[in-house]
């Protein structure tokens, strides 16, 4: 799932 | 990047600018909790460990560096600036914040996306950010008056969290598979703390009386 993708928020 | 996230980042930046302006213009940090500022410095340093491993965009890297540098600068001023440090409300800023750090880290050890150093520290920073405002609220409660700039500082911080919630709703609806349970739930908790403060801030402002938060 995308919850473990690269964190793109600040 | 969507309009809500950009608005969130900008109000976050604005809150820091307001705080720096207050300290610079008045050469005073009265009404500001050093403990909250130290927690924010910890939050940014723990969260942005990915500066060393992932590149997302120039904007992203630039903002991360701004947040780390400005939070450290504020802490430095409050601790070491020869004039500013004298106005620090030490006797009012007594919240036991190590409890918050410990509880946030313990939660990050059990609830994280992946059990890696970077992911545990990321989750820790999210939980700590949600409660980092508490020493500031306690200080305002004790001092009983909030100057305009301090009120605006907390207002912009609250706006930043509210915009991020809109951003998550927007991304959830537009991006397939987008979920942010950790950030989302923590963000709602954090925004509720700010909304609560603003309710009492507004009441005291309307009645032209001293701020009185429930104990």
Task: Please describe what this structure looks like.
The complex is a heterodimer of chains A (10) and B (215). Chain A is low in regular secondary structure and 10 residues long. Chain A is 0% helix and 0% strand. The N and C termini of chain A lie far apart (20 Å). The model of chain A has no long low-confidence stretch (mean pLDDT 68). By secondary structure, chain B is an all-alpha fold. Chain B has one domain. In chain B, 71% of the residues lie in helices and 0% in strands. Chain B contains eight helices and no strands. The mean pLDDT of chain B is 93. The interface between A and B is medium-sized, with 9 and 24 residues.
Topology summary:
The complex is a heterodimer of chains A (10) and B (215).
Chain A: no helix or strand
Chain B: H1 3-26, H2 34-47, H3 58-80, H4 98-110, H5 117-131, H6 134-143, H7 148-174, H8 181-206
Helix pairs in contact in B: 1-3, 1-7, 2-3, 2-5, 4-5, 5-8, 7-8
């Amino acid at each position: 799932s995308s919850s473990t993708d690269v964190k793109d928020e600040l | 990047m969507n309009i809500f996230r950009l608005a969130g980042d900008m109000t976050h930046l604005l809150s820091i600018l307001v705080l720096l302006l207050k300290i610079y213009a008045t050469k005073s940090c009265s009404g500001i909790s050093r403990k909250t500022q130290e927690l924010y410095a910890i939050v940014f340093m723990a969260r942005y460990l990915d500066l060393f491993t992932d590149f997302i965009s120039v904007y992203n890297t630039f903002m991360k560096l701004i947040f780390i540098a400005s939070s450290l600068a504020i802490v430095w001023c409050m601790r070491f600036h020869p004039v500013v440090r004298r106005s620090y409300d030490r006797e009012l800023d007594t919240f036991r914040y190590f409890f918050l750090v410990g509880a946030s880290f313990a939660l990050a050890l059990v609830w994280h996306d992946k059990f890696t150093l970077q992911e545990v520290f990321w989750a820790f920073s999210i939980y700590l950010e949600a409660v980092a405002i508490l020493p500031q609220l306690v200080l305002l409660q004790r001092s009983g008056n909030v100057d305009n700039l301090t009120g605006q500082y907390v207002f912009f911080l609250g706006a930043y969290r509210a915009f991020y919630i809109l951003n998550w709703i927007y991304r959830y609806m537009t991006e397939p598979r987008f979920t942010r349970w950790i950030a989302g739930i923590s963000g709602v908790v954090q925004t509720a703390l700010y909304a609560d403060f603003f309710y009492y801030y507004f009441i005291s402002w309307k009645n032209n009386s001293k701020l009185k938060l429930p104990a």
